[in-house]
Specification:
The chain is mainly alpha-helical. It has helices at 5-32, 51-63, 83-104, 113-128, 143-159, 167-172, 183-201, 227-254, 276-279, 282-305, 323-353, 362-388, 397-400, 412-431, 434-438, 444-458, 472-505, 511-529, 544-557, 564-574, 585-608, 612-618, 622-651, 659-694, 697-700, 703-706, 709-717, 719-741; strands at residues 39-41, 47-50, 71-72, 75-76, 138-140. It is built from 28 helices and 5 strands.
Length: 749
């Protein structure tokens, strides 16, 4: 450890404490998850819905695309309703009408204020306290509630079928006809929807709030923010301000001022003869940009489906390529191409670490990994298609078709193959570090680089820790280990360390500066990022301690972003540090864009939906899409593009970037991303916020609300920035492809 001992001890302490917190409260997630009752029964003991019915409904929901078609408990797609909030509201209205008819002989709307108030009071007591699970694992439902359930279920059974009477609604929800062809499975689907609504309306044993901390906002049964929600929201802001203050003080008083290194007269990396494994990376560069282009075209199609739910400018695509499938491929493509970009950077750096040499059979391993990635991508896409066209037998869906969980949609078999591929990548990386560690000199920077790549190689595995019929709460715990901790945590650390390693090898920063920056950044990212995973689980069936931990630590995730302006300036200035660095201008500009979108997308838009009181109303609205687009592409997308452009530059050292093509691509991507957020996603989200606060989430996601002329217009407006973004992506992809495959030793035309 040497001179970095204190920083290493700090990082080890941070990782030990934060993962202990994540694990300890993970046990709380398992213990307090909403139960699957053995049965919902009538007052005379007759089974209405069994546990097996609910689990069969969960499988049926997964086979329709799950979170890619509407959302469940607030997580998923945004065009169709949130099925939890929608079912709950419809059931409550049905209960009120049935009760009004029974007691007063007329509909609820025709009762006077006193009669309505009395029925609402009775309903609140029945739903929140009268439907708790008994010691025998059963829930007794009143005759009125059973009638309400039977009155609501046909709507969903018809909606998911092919009845012409619901075709307009299906079009508005971007659902294809016969989304779930089997009527028996549609009935089971409604049982699953009912269970999620039951968990959202029933108080925990001996507690004053529901299993979902009173989410969704539903005034009819007093589903409003708890006192703890408000308290921890205020606390999160206090923690944020404290963290920012301490960071500024620490930056001012503890920062080291190392002298600038003597800049080399030529690019040191370009002097290293390319190894066979590095030369094999051209196809990785192409796969990255090819999947990127596929993803952005799928994104444009997905956005258009919010306007013509079953057509693309009149072409009836939804029978074969419905919204749920296209959105699945859109999100999975993002994970695949961004991950491939990061893996490419690592494989290029591995021989550099090894003194410019390949270990034996390294090129063979690189080629084998490419084949594995190709199989996973093609196999998972094919499985998704067969699942959502219902050509695949239902019992095979979870393993080979569609899991139904956003970002982890691929079947479990393909998920395991992807994990094997990541472990192969890690093996290829680690074998290059063995000789480097045996040589003399300071190995601290190499050690943190190795630690970061272990995180990338291993932390996809938690996505395998839940099963087909595990509780949504348990699934969400592990899913966010992947989406938040793997992508937003270890990818972030790997990128930071990889860039420090690259800039050190280019002679732009000293080894000391690179090492210190990497260790400090890793500690800052992990201290908030690891326990901050819980901020995704506030309303997913967890208890108040989860909310407290998530709100407190996730506020600290924003703290390191305060200094990104300085990082952006450093990356921008490197192109002017020495004449030969101008050749790397465009990878550097991608890294500048990363810093900007990290501040705006992850920082500003992330904290917008971060405090519990904010997310209580905003979960499941387009404000989440604002954060997702700005941070996933703005940060990790630009990082991956920067990495592959850097690799392409060294693979073809005689080529120059086409300034016109690269300038167009870079600025069109940034303008397109900013445009789709400012002109469409954010305004729609703000309008939805008002409806969610005023009437409830059901209203903000309802068919009538989402089909207002103003919101339809905003979705049409998004077409223009989408086209701008697609054009920019094609420019970048063409540049990278030309550099990798063109035989002419000239700049890209």
């Amino acid at each position: 450890m040497g001179q970095y001992k204190k920083l290493w001890l700090l990082l080890i302490a941070v990782l030990t404490i934060t993962f202990s917190i994540l694990g300890y409260f993970g046990v709380e997630v398992y213990r307090k998850a909403p139960p699957f009752p053995e049965a919902y029964v009538s007052s005379d003991g007759q089974t209405v819905i069994s546990r097996d019915d609910i689990l069969a409904g969960q499988s049926a929901w997964q086979s329709t695309g799950g979170m890619e078609l509407g959302s469940i408990m607030g997580h998923g797609a945004y065009q169709a309703p949130d099925w939890t909030a929608d079912w709950l509201h419809r059931e409550l209205l049905a209960w009120l009408d049935i009760s009004a008819q029974n007691q007063h002989g007329k509909p609820f709307a025709e009762l006077d204020a006193g009669q309505q108030a009395a029925l609402k009071t009775t309903m609140v007591e029945e739903y929140r306290n009268g439907s708790r699970m008994g010691a025998d694992g059963k829930v007794v439902l009143s005759d009125t509630r059973i009638k309400a359930i039977k009155a609501v279920a046909p709507y969903y059974i018809t909606l998911y079928g092919a009845d012409p009477s619901m075709e307009k609604a299906r079009d508005h929800f971007a659902m294809k006809n016969n989304t779930l062809p089997d009527e028996t499975r549609r009935q089971r689907l409604t049982d699953f929807f009912f269970w999620t609504a039951w968990a959202s309306a029933t108080n925990r044993p001996d507690y004053h709030a529901t299993y979902t901390n009173n989410w969704p906002h539903e005034p009819l049964i007093n589903n409003v923010p708890t006192a703890e929600n408000v308290m921890w929201s205020v606390a999160s802001i206090v923690f944020l301000l404290t963290g920012v203050g301490l960071l500024v003080w620490g930056w001012s008083f503890l920062r080291r001022h190392d002298p600038d290194p003597q800049l080399p007269e030529s690019d040191p990396i370009s002097k290293v003869h390319l190894t066979p494994s590095q030369r094999a990376l051209g196809k990785y560069v192409f796969l990255t940009v090819a999947l990127f282009v596929v993803q952005i075209f799928l994104g444009g199609l997905t956005a258009h489906y919010t306007l013509e739910g079953q057509h693309f400018y009149g072409i009836p695509l939804s029978d074969w390529f419905p919204y749920a499938l296209v959105r699945t491929w859109h999100l999975q493509s993002a994970i695949f191409w961004i991950a491939t970009g990061f893996l490419t950077a690592g494989l290029f750096l591995a021989p550099v670490v090894n003194g410019g040499k390949d270990p034996k059979f390294q090129a063979l391993g690189v080629n084998a990994l490419f084949v594995a990635l190709f199989i996973v991508v093609g196999g998972s896409y094919g499985g998704n298609f067969l699942a959502l066209t219902h050509a695949m037998p239902a019992h095979l869906n979870f393993w080979f078709g569609h899991q139904g969980y956003e970002y982890l949609d691929l079947g479990r078999f393909w998920q395991i193959l992807l994990m094997v591929g990541l472990l192969l990548w890690l093996f290829l990386m680690l074998r290059c570090t063995v000789e480097a560690f045996r040589s003399g000199g300071d190995k601290n920077l190499l050690a943190i680089f190795v630690a970061s790549m272990v995180g990338v190689g291993v932390f996809y595995a938690p996505g395998l820790f839940y099963g087909e019929h595990d509780s949504l709460t348990v699934m969400e715990y592990w899913r966010w280990w992947v989406v938040h901790l793997w992508v937003e945590g270890f990818f972030e650390v790997f990128a930071t360390v990889a860039l420090a390693f690259i800039f050190y090898n280019l002679g732009l920063v000293s080894r000391t500066s690179a090492t210190v920056a990497s260790l400090v950044a890793a500690s800052l990212f992990m201290v908030g990022g690891v326990p901050g995973t819980f901020h995704h689980l506030y309303f997913s069936g967890t208890s108040t301690p989860i909310m407290a931990v998530g709100a407190s630590f996730s506020a600290l995730e924003v703290v390191p972003l305060i200094l990104l302006g300085k990082e952006a300036h450093e990356h921008w200035s490197y192109q002017h540090a020495t004449p030969w660095m101008k050749r790397l201008r465009w990878p550097l500009m991608c890294f500048v864009a990363v810093a900007f979108w990290n501040m705006l997308g992850a920082g500003v838009f992330g904290f917008l939906i971060n405090p519990p009181i904010s997310l209580f109303y905003l979960q499941g609205l387009n404000t989440t899409a604002v954060h997702a687009h700005a941070s996933l592409f703005g940060v990790y997308g630009f990082l991956a593009l920067g990495f592959v452009l850097l690799v392409a530059r060294y693979l073809r050292p005689d080529y120059e970037f086409n300034e016109r093509l690269m300038s167009s691509g870079f600025w069109l991507l940034n303008l397109g991303l900013a445009g789709m957020i400012a002109a469409s996603l954010l305004p729609i989200g703000v309008i939805q916020i008002h409806a969610a606060i005023t009437d409830g989430l059901w209203m903000a996601r309802s068919e009538a609300f989402m089909q207002q002329e103003s919101l339809v217009l905003l979705r049409w407006i998004r077409t223009l920035p989408d086209l701008v973004f697609i054009a920019g992506g094609c420019c970048i992809a063409w540049q990278a492809t030309w550099m990798v495959f063109s035989r002419n030793r000239a700049s890209a035309a």
